């Protein structure tokens, strides 16, 4: 009987200690997570996670960039040297975030050479089939950038984003495209050519970030 009373007393003592421990742990919670009176305040932090599918707990991922650049910028030269180019060339930003054209360069194809852009008459003294051409480009009605005669193989036309190079995210369809206006002069050819590659234009696209 005495042993039974001791066991019961021990159990009651353990329960009392446990209840005190629970009360103590609750009292140790940060005060801003507990509202203990009418009119009291509680604080909740707002956290951000960028994820692949936009759901909480999914794999981490940054905003996806998706920008469409023309695969070809066609140039046609007439028998009298008159040049025609595409009038609907443009860069389209399909991304959620704003982007910019950060750099534009041109590289002559094998067998062709860059020269200074200007009036076609400047090539009048060149021999037929000398395979020289000058190039001019403008983005979004911005400043015209021209090739010169300093480097025949590769030239940087734009080394930083300027007016006309910026595109909004896809949500604003009035500002998520940049028109490409371009022109060229080309030396005469003795035989007809069709879709011959004479150069490649490299557009470097970057986020328009702070």
Outline the secondary-structure elements.
Elements: H1 2-27, E1 67-68, E2 75-77, E3 83-85, E4 90-93, E5 99-108, E6 113-114, E7 132-139, E8 145-146, E9 154-158, E10 166-167, E11 177-186, E12 199-207
Parallel strand pairs: 6-7
Antiparallel strand pairs: 1-4, 2-3, 4-11, 5-9, 5-10, 5-12, 7-8, 7-11
Structural class: alpha+beta
Please count the beta strands (DSSP E, at least 2 residues each). 12
Question: Roughly how many Å is the radius of gyration?
Answer: 35 Å
Arithmetic mean of pLDDT: 89
**SSE order:** HEEEEEEEEEEEE
Tell me what you see in this structure:
The chain is α+β, with helices and mostly antiparallel strands. 12% of the residues lie in helices and 29% in strands. The model is unreliable at 20-27 (pLDDT under 50).
In short:
The protein has 210 residues and is of the alpha+beta class. It has one helix spanning 2-27, and strands at 67-68, 75-77, 83-85, 90-93, 99-108, 113-114, 132-139, 145-146, 154-158, 166-167, 177-186, 199-207.
């Amino acid at each position: 009987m005495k042993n039974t009373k001791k066991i019961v007393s021990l159990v009651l003592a353990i329960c009392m200690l446990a209840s005190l421990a629970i009360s103590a742990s609750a009292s140790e919670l940060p005060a801003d997570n507990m509202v203990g009176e009418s009119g009291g305040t509680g604080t909740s932090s707002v956290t951000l996670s960028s994820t692949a599918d936009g759901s909480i707990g999914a794999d981490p991922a940054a905003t996806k960039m998706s920008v469409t650049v023309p695969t070809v910028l066609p140039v046609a030269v007439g028998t009298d040297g008159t040049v025609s180019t595409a009038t609907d060339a443009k860069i389209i930003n399909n991304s959620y975030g704003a982007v910019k054209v950060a750099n534009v360069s041109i590289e002559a194809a094998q067998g062709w050479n860059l020269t200074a852009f200007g009036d076609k008459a400047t090539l009048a003294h060149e021999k037929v089939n000398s395979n020289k051409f000058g190039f001019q480009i403008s983005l979004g009605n911005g400043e015209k950038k021209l090739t010169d005669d300093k480097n025949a193989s590769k030239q940087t036309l734009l080394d930083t984003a300027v007016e006309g190079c910026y595109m909004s995210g896809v949500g604003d369809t009035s500002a998520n495209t940049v028109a490409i206006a371009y022109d060229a002069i080309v030396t005469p050819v003795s035989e007809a050519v069709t879709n011959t590659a004479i150069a490649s234009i490299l557009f470097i696209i970057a986020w328009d970030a702070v």
